[in-house]
Amino acid sequence: MKNNVLLGFSEMDITPSFNVETIGFNRKDNLSRGVLHKLFAQVSLWIFNEEKCCLLAIDHIGFSYKESNILRDEIANKLGITRDNVMLCFSHTHSGPNTAIEKEYFSFLCKQVLLGVDEAEKNLRPIKAAWGNTEANIGINRRDEHGVLDKRVGVLKIVDSNTGNLRLLILRVTAHGNVLLGDNYLISSDFIGVTRKLLKEKYNCHVMITQGASGNIKPKYTGSLKDLNKMAVEIDNAIKNCIKKLKPRRIEKLSMFSQKETFFADVPTLEQAKEISNEAMRESNIDGTNWLKEIEKLNNKDIKKQNKDIEIQYFILDDGCFCGVSNEIMCEIAVNVAKESNDDLIYLGAYTNGCDGYLPTADEYDKGGYEVLHSYLIYYIYSGMVMPFNRDTADKLVKIVTEQWKKIK
Questions:
Q1: DSSP assignment of 337-385, as one string?
Q2: Is the same domain home to 283 and 312?
Q3: Considering 253, 278, 313, which residue would you say is the last residue of a domain?
Q4: Is residue 328 within a helix (H) or strand (E), and if so which, with residue range?
Q5: 384 conformational bin, left if phi > 0, alpha if psi -120 to 50, beta if neither
Q6: CA-based nearest residue to 228, from 239, 217, 219, 238
Q7: Tens place of pLDDT for every residue, the chain, 409 residues?
Q8: Residue 139: domain span
Q9: Contact 165, 159 (CB under 8 A)
Q10: Residue 52: in which H helix or E strand, if any?
């Protein structure tokens, strides 16, 4: 029938076959020493009234926005759609390859994903779906152990229209992908991969897991293989009743699109930058030498502000929505979007189409620290920004997403 939604799915192995430079920990030696868990790229291809959109989940900390768009454009060209109809969701594992350095690996990953798109096109089937929302205690606010959490676990249950068999579960969770810490040199998909495996075996279907606004949320359990399993069990226990109750139905609305907004960041003076650099070394053991050189270059060019167009992308299915930005947004931002929208089925996440710098709330901006300032001394080379967006940016983002969602509903 005309408005039946078709879904195709594939899962491709993207594990490096050689030791690679990893990204995720501020350490001198980042060369991997083997594989603990395989990495995967999952492709879900959706067709509704002849319109296509592609939602992917990739085991990686998050490409640069530029790298993400290279892959998105390749997928879009293959499918005959635009970049706005391709959404990359990164697991944010801290135990994966650095694609900015490992060009051969990035090329391999892209080829695997494109093969996955071909495979997904070959197994398109009509589906029904239903949204659910539950809670799991899997995170701790690392800026304040008693602070705000987004405990929601979004559940999208998808079944084959013809057989009624469970075909795919898509979850949205909120916790950083670093259960394994800096003493781990093995490639791993972290708790996301372990959870996927557990749920796939239990429900006999594929499982995709996307990240929420986990910029300031560390995992509840950290440091060991047992802790990976504890995270998986917490999620499993949280969703089991929800999944039983959900009754998938015919899909009436499905779309994917983007909007872009320009946000600004003030460039510090050299004296201000030196204070930040000294603090970063003292509190986080981060060397800001190269960052200071970049600040000096900007000052010499009389550049007092930087700006960037931020893409906010939406995947809408009936009354629920996965949306996201490439920044590491703090959980309060997603919580406030749900609150202002009066809707728990709007899930704003981070690490969507890339992994840029942290985006703190106004309150957290004033506190400074690693997520607000120190991290930029390391990762400015990837994001192109030497400072976080200005303190009013989080509130602007909440307003933009809330207004857009109200229009859509």
A1: HHHHHT-TTEEEES-BSS---EE--HHHHHH-SIIIIITHHHHHHHHS-
A2: yes
A3: 253
A4: strand 328-329
A5: left
A6: 219
A7: 455 899 999 999 999 999 999 999 989 999 999 999 999 999 999 999 989 999 999 999 999 999 999 999 999 999 999 999 999 999 999 999 999 999 999 999 999 999 999 999 999 999 999 999 999 999 999 999 999 999 999 999 999 999 999 999 999 999 999 999 999 999 999 999 999 999 999 999 999 999 999 999 999 999 999 999 999 999 999 999 999 999 999 999 999 999 999 999 999 999 999 999 999 999 999 999 999 999 999 999 999 999 999 999 999 999 999 999 999 999 999 999 999 999 999 999 999 999 999 999 999 999 999 999 999 999 999 889 999 999 999 999 999 999 999 998 8
A8: 5-253
A9: yes
A10: strand 51-58
- Do the bridges between strand 125-135 and strand 96-97 make them parallel or antiparallel, or are there none, so unpaired? unpaired
Q: DSSP labels for 185-199? A: -SB--HHHHHHHHHH
What pTM was computed for the model? 0.96
Q: Which two tokens stand for residue 65?
A: 């926005």
Distance between CA 373 and CA 367 in Å, rounded? 10
DSSP string, 263-278: EEEEPPPHHHHHHHHH
What are the CA-CA distances from residue 302 to residues 234, 268, 275, 299 (Å)?
Answer: 52, 11, 20, 5
**150, 339 contact by CB (below 8 A):** no
What tokens does 253 get? 């609305």
Strands 346-349 and 320-324: parallel
Tokens linked to 91: 């697991």
Which of 212, 234, 253 terminates a domain? The answer is 253
First to last CA, the chain: 24
**Domain count within the chain:** 2
Strand-pairing partners, residue 135, are 152
Mark whether 272 and 374 lie in a shared domain: yes
List the one residue out of 10, 17, 173, 30 whose CA is nearest residue 92: 173
What DSSP letter does each residue of 266-324 carry, written as one string? Answer: EPPPHHHHHHHHHHHHHHH----HHHHHHHHHHHHTT--EEEEEEEEEEEEETTEEEEE
Same domain, 277 and 218: no
Place of tokens 């704003």: 348
DSSP class of 84:
G
Q: Give the integer Cα–Cα distance in Å for 158 and 88.
A: 20
Residue 395, number of CB atoms within 10 A of its CB: 13
